[in-house]
Amino acid sequence: MIGYFYAKGGEAEGKQQADSQNKFEWAVQRALRELHGTFGLAILCSDFPDILIGAKKGSPLILGVGDNEYILASDVAAIVGHTTRAIYFADNEIVTIGPEGFHTKTIDNVTVTKDLEQIEFSLDQIELGDFQRYMLKEIFEQPRALSTCMGGRIDRTNNRIRLGGITSYLRELTRAKRIILTACGTAFHAGLVGEFLFEQLARIPTETEYASEFRYRNPIIEDRTVVMSISQSGETADTLAAVEQAKERGATVLGIVNVVGSSIARATDAGIYLHVGPEIGVASTKAFTAQLAVLTMLATELGRRKHISSDQAARLIGELSRIPNKISRILEQSDHIKDIASANIDKNNWLFLGRGFNYPVALEGALKLKEISYIHAEGLPAAEMKHGPIALIVDDMPAVFVATTGPQYDKIMGNIAEVKARGGKIIAVATEGDETIKQHADHLITVPDAPELLQPMLTVVPLQLLAYHAAVLRGHDVDKPRNLAKSVTVE
C-alpha cells in the first residue's frame, strides 16, 4: 500500500482547509473506533480532494517526508527513492496531510508529536545490480551483511561483545532464571539455535516458542524471566501480540529485529538491530544468518560474564569474526549446487536431517525448499527418522544431511547408512577435507571447518542456494512465492 501527496501551499485557502480537515478527521476517527482487527490505511474522499489521511493498527505505516512531498507506505523500501526521512506511527494513530503540511493525532483526537527519523539504507541497496533476483542478491550479500552486523560489536582487543541497544539490561540478562524466545517461521529456527547457545554458553534455561501459540495459551512468566522476540520485519502480528502478552505479565521483553522503527522495536523494552540492510525477497536469507550472529554474540557475552573463561570467549569471538570469509568460500560453489538441484528437482518429496546445532538448520532448509520451489519437504532431527519417517523413504528420494564434524558425527553417519540402505539419495553438507563421507554421499557440498555452535551460519548457506536453484529451474518467482507475504501482519 502506498499513497502520494504533493503539498501546494496557499494562505487564502487556510481556514477552509482547516474546516475540511476537521470534518474529514472526525469522520475517519469515528469510523476507526468501530473497526476490529488490523489495518494500515491511506484514505481519500472525493468531498475533500486536497486531504490524505493515514491510519494504522497492527499493520505497518510510515510517512516519507520529502521536499513539498509526502508519501504514505507500509515499508521504507517504497519511499527511499524519494526521501531518506520518515515518521513511524504507533497503533491507533492517524496522520492528516494537506497543502499546509501534516499533523498527527490518535483516533480519540489527542494530538501526538512524532520524531522525524533518518532511513538507514540507501536506494542502491534495494537495486538488483548484477543480480537477476533479490533472493540470490541477498544470499550473496551475507558476508558483507554479517560483517556489518558484527562491526563495532566485536571487541577483539578486550575479547568482549558490545551490544549498545541492551547495555542497560545486561545485568538483568545475566541474572535471568529463564529465557523465552518467541518467533515465527525462519526466525523461529534462529530461536532454536539461540536456545542451544544460551543453555550451552550462559547456562540459562531457555525455550523457543512459536509466537502464534504463545499468544493464545497461559504461559508461565516468573520473576527474572526474559522474553526475546525475533522478527526480520518487526511487524509480524503474532510475534507482536506475544510481546504485548509478555509485557502484561511482567517479563523483561527484548527485540531482535532488522527494521528500525518497526512495531516490535517500539513495543519492546530494548533490543538489538540486525543492521543487514533491506531484505526484499520473501524468503529470508541474510536476516536469518544475522539473527544467528546476534544470538551468538549475546550468548557469548552472557557466558563470558557468568560461565565460560576469558580464553574460551576469546577463541569463540575470533572464530565468529572469521565467519563472513568462510561464507564467501561456500558461495563459490553456487554452480555446483545448481547441478545438484537440477539432478533432483523432479522429486516431489525431500527429507532434511541434522543433529545438535544443525537440527534447526535442517528445519530451515526444508522450509526454504517448500516456500519457493513448492516441493514438499520435511525437516527432522536425524535420530527421529527411525521413529516413523523412515517409512517414507523410497528409491532415489533426496535426503539432505547436514553432517559436519562434531560430537555427533558418528551418529549421523549411521543415519546416512540407514537411508542409503533403503534406496534414498544422499545429499550431504559436510566439512571440508572429510574423506569418509565421500563414500556414502551421492552429492557432496562442503563448508569450512568451524566450532559446532557456529556451524549453522555456514551450513544454512548451501541449503539456501539449493532451494533457490531448485525454484528457478522449476520456473517459479523466487522473490514473490505464491500465497506468501514478506511481513505477516495478519493472523
What is the topology?
Layout: E1 2-6, H1 14-32, E2 39-43, E3 52-57, E4 62-65, E5 69-73, E6 85-88, E7 93-98, E8 101-106, E9 117-118, H2 134-140, H3 142-150, E10 154-155, E11 160-161, H4 170-174, E12 178-183, H5 185-202, E13 206-210, H6 211-214, E14 225-231, H7 237-248, E15 252-257, H8 263-267, E16 270-273, H9 286-306, H10 310-321, H11 323-331, H12 334-344, E17 349-354, H13 359-373, E18 376-381, E19 398-402, H14 409-421, E20 425-431, E21 443-447, H15 456-473
Parallel strand pairs: 12-13, 12-14, 14-15, 15-16, 17-18, 17-19, 19-20, 20-21
Antiparallel strand pairs: 1-5, 2-3, 3-7, 4-5, 4-6, 6-9, 7-8, 10-11
Helix pairs in contact: 3-9, 3-11, 5-9, 5-13, 9-10, 11-15, 12-15, 13-15
Summarize the structure.
Helix content is 36%, strand content 21%. By secondary structure, the protein is of the alpha/beta class.
